[in-house]
Amino acid sequence: MISLNEKNASQLEFQHVHNVYENIASHFSDTRQKPWPNVVKFINKAEPGSIILDVGCGNAKYFTSNSTNFQVGCDRSTQLAQICKSRNHQVFNCDCLQLPLRSNCIDFCINIAVLHHLSTSERRFKALNEIFRVLRKGGQALIYVWAKEQKRNETPSTYLKQKKAHIKNSSSVNDTISNHYHVEKIELDLPIHTNRSNFIHNDLLVPWKLNKNKLNDKDPVTHLRFYHVFEETELKSLCERISNCKIIEYYYDQGNWCIIFEKLLNT
Fold first, then answer.
1. Which of 14, 57, 120, 256 has the fewest CB atoms within 10 Å around its CB?
2. Angle between the 19-30 and 78-86 helix axes, to the nearest 10 degrees?
3. 6-149+232-263 topology per CATH
4. Whole-prediction pTM
């Protein structure tokens, strides 16, 4: 596990999360079209008139056509937010560490593949606590994070199964070109993960290969995204630190650790 102060953690995320998504937003959106079935199942539990918040909504692939509920999303990336707005979704820009919403106003919240981009345990806890804060009493949230375990009961995750397709497709995420990368300004060396392989480290950089010109596959740019991949009990332990938070379900889903929690009525 890496140890960073608040300033360095913020700088790492700025360089290797926020800036990266600004640069890859369009290509990222093109690769994120199919929603996870269990996330859709959770959203569909919402009763008519519910307010549903997607924290880190990306290209809004989890927005449904259900007009009986009000869906709103937020994302740190201005480019991804613009993609959402072009699809007529209600989305605003903010950091998940400080949601500009009043407490106790959201019925259902999802946070899918976001928390693992935060570089310290305390920042991850702070983001979870913000989600809990904005939930109404009795409201529920669903969180997905990448698992360090990408094979469970001898069955490889979707992430590992996609290896052959990604090797054939040179415009997608590519294998790493070196073992470590020195992060500027914070004097930190991080391992670079080999895409579509099992995780060895908890804190690492994952390459995203983006072509400057889609017609010229020989001129790619590789962006490195920071990830903290979660051990089996890690996400659950963070949620258990939140007062009056009831864990409804904790499960593994295709290479992700997932949790559903509820804000107790006596909060």
1. 14
2. 30
3. Rossmann fold (3.40.50)
4. 0.91
